[in-house]
Specification:
By secondary structure, the chain is mainly alpha-helical. The chain has 15 helices and four strands. Helices cover 66% and strands 4% of the residues.
């Protein structure tokens, strides 16, 4: 009900933004193609984004851009650097030219759209995005749980299928038959699956806490069942990053909703003490401890990425070239990603691009921390979403390609550059 609006163009505009963020997930081929996508797919999805952009402007007809803060200069500098860097490196052999142009094209279109949002549509967009993340995670988790009972496997393509009469439901899996299989649902690998489950689970947990505070037991039971199903999906994904970040951010969500500051400090201290005890107990099992600390071998990929970046340290090797760099370091049989957004930025855009990216991320965190209020669910949700992306970027290469994760990050970045001239610009209005 909070998203119902008599402004039909505004509602259609929000729907287009929702499509923009989710279309990448629902149109990708069902295969392990995180970063290596066919040239035809890049062209096709660029046409789709252009159609969404034109439709948005024909319907909403924004007349002006709201006032921006001085921090917009940082974002403008980042976009200008991305533009010139893409054009200069476009024809280098290691650069994925179609992917580079898609990245640049969709970034500018989405930035122009989000820049035109005034205060009310911005708040409504974030509210809608939270609901999308919740119900998308719920659907992905339910689908993975259902298909996990399937007995038909295609080992070469890593496809598991469940036949329901004339209908066949399929999902990707990782693992050997006869042992535990990591489910990927309708995404292209289990880590991506878990990455989409985490924000949905956190929003469900926020609704549970809110229902408990208001003694709404039916609502608490409903969102509690949503949370349980999403947690089952996380277990089926067996993603260490997803499970760790979910519980850490879930605890942080609980702390942020506490009214008294001293109580928040006490609860935080107890959580830190518990984490210390867990790490201490794990340290007695050196094999398990080293596997957890290295996040299942990612540290080797990170070291390879840093080593590969040294020959073109300042300006990098060009967008889409990280697969080549990883192959040069670890051989052709290695995975095609460094599993770290900052390291991919370092390799592809150099130190200059990495510093601009990190400064932009810091701007988001500073703005959302300043906007935080314990009684404002939306401000807590936005802060948690930014921290989710912060955790996710260190273990996955998700913010360097045009995808739902990247566009959510851009939304938060543009919001952070808004100048608040009155109290009505706040998210809790």
């Amino acid at each position: 009900m909070m998203l119902k609006s008599v402004n039909i163009p505004e509602s259609i505009g929000l729907f287009i933004l929702a499509l923009w963020v989710t279309i990448d997930l629902w149109t990708r081929p069902l295969s392990f193609t995180d970063e290596v996508l066919p040239h035809q797919w890049n062209v096709w999805i660029a046409v789709v984004y252009l159609a969404l952009f034109v439709t948005f402007y024909l319907i909403t007809r924004p007349l002006y851009f709201p006032p921006r803060a001085l921090t917009q200069r940082l974002v403008t500098l980042f976009l200008i650097y991305l533009t010139f860097h893409t054009l200069v490196f476009l024809f280098r052999p290691a650069t994925a030219s179609s992917l580079s142009l898609l990245h640049l094209f969709t970034t500018w279109l989405f930035v122009i759209i989000v820049l035109s949002l005034t205060a009310r549509p911005f708040v409504r967009w974030f509210q809608l995005m939270n609901l999308i993340l919740l119900y998308q995670a719920l659907f992905l988790a339910a689908y993975a749980l259902l298909v996990s009972f399937g007995q038909h496997y295609v080992p070469i393509d890593n496809i598991q299928s469940l036949r329901l009469g004339p209908v066949s439901l399929s999902q990707l899996y990782v693992g050997e038959q006869g042992s535990f299989l990591r489910s990927a649902s309708l995404t292209n690998n289990p880590n991506t699956f878990a990455a989409w489950l985490v924000p949905g689970g956190l929003i469900a947990w926020m609704y549970v806490l809110q229902s408990l505070a208001r003694n709404r037991w039916r609502s608490c039971l409903l969102f509690g069942s949503f949370l349980l199903l999403i947690m089952i999906g996380l277990i089926l994904s067996a993603s260490q990053t997803g499970i760790y970040s979910f519980f850490l951010l879930g605890l942080l969500t609980t702390v942020l909703r506490l009214k008294r500051k001293r109580l928040r400090y006490h609860v935080t201290a107890l959580y830190l003490l518990g984490a210390g005890i867990v790490l201490l107990s794990m340290s007695f099992n050196r094999a398990l401890f080293s596997q957890v600390i290295s996040l299942n071998g990612r540290s080797a990929l990170w070291q390879a990425g840093i080593a590969a970046s040294t020959d073109r340290l300042w300006f990098g090797h060009g967008l889409g070239s990280s697969a080549v760099g990883l192959e040069e370091q670890l051989g052709p049989s290695t995975l095609y990603t460094f599993h770290s957004t900052p390291i991919v930025y370092l390799y592809e855009l150099g130190v200059v691009g990495l510093l601009l990216y990190l400064a932009s991320f810091l701007l988001i965190l500073v703005r959302l921390i300043r906007d935080y209020r314990y009684d404002d669910s939306l401000s807590i949700a936005l802060l948690i979403l930014s921290l989710w992306l912060l955790f996710l970027q260190f273990t996955e290469s998700v913010l360097v390609r045009p995808s739902g994760f990247y566009f959510i990050w851009l939304s938060l970045l543009i919001y952070a550059t808004r100048r608040r001239t009155t109290s009505q610009e706040s998210t809790h209005t």
